[in-house]
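Quarterly update from the structural biology core.
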Amino acid sequence: MSFLAAQLAPPQTAPRRSPFRRSWLSSISATSPIGAAMPPITLAITSSRTTGTPRPTTMATATAVAIAMVAVYTPARRGRVNQILSCRVSNNPIAAPSACMSAAMVSTLTTTMLPATAHALVGGEISIDHARVITGCAAAVGTDAMAKGEPILLEAARELDPYMLSIAAAHLRHAVDPDGALLDANEAYESRKVWLSKLGNMYRLDGQLDAEGGAYLQTALNALMGMPQAGDNRSAAQRRADALVELARQKLNSGELPQVGGQKPHLSLLVRAETLRGEPGAEAADLEWGGAVPDETALRLACDCALTEVAIDEDGNPLDVGRTRRSVHPSQKRALVVRDRHCRFTGCDAPVEWTDAHHLRHWIHGGPTLLWNLVLLCGRHHRLVHEGGWKLEPDAGGELVAVPPWPRWA
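Predicted structure, tokenized:
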């Protein structure tokens, strides 16, 4: 009896785009010197080039609003607002004031020296999410600054979504009270945390990051997610999850992580040969940190890995340990990169860094580890071929075509 210990060992060998539609700031004026009466501010936004609809939701617009506010504020920080609007609100940022906006909330806005905000909220000119941004800014900068800032923020609120309005409010906070802004940033950093828990056959991921940490992660995930391809029916959350796993896989494969226990970190899979062959009654494979996994998962992981055969007796005691070998030699992997250039699944152009070698006929079933029996597949499509039951068949011209499982034709 023998076991195969498979190690998915390291091989031997764009700035973030704004999620908002582009629009252009036509003119914005803030001419009065610091400390003067509040200047008139003009927000004239040209229409979107793609739709012709006014869409002033750009970072430049929010920043320009903040610059206009900085021109009329002194750095002195005075009284704090004691009462702040707080309630559960709809996730729709443009919804009309909901039932939770009671007369008491309007009274709160009025008594906190924000009567214009209260009037705009009652009249449906701004959403409750806009009001929360304005009241939060008031709590941070104080009533004196808000006496001049409220009209500007209200004008911006009528044009910007709550997120972009919060950017303008953040610039105001930093201009009036940079020490307080730094304190907020430090508190956010100290609140960072991530939980990773194994629950059954799933991992549960939860946590929070400060603005910089979140920006690093978001930028990396965006790069790995890319644009949805034709036929990709994954949700945004699923694509984000796949990108996070791919980020970890690529880092492990790079061989740049520090050693653990005298060797580079890797996934370890313990599987019986009869499990790989699909024999009836064979037990599942064991994935380190992952638990029991089915035979098709073991076959996929064994396509491109480091293999070590271990002979055991009837009691499971090791009798002999063979030499570790690569299921696909590094020189063969380089040749595949030159030939395939990307994932070979129909319609996929995932770069080679996202791929593993796949045996068209698995080596456990007698398939040779030769170039004509190997192709590069990205993680998502490699899983479709094994666990998903898809096939890669050559067409009349010799090009591989992805064929779905037969029930999908019914």
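The longest strand covers residues 2-8.
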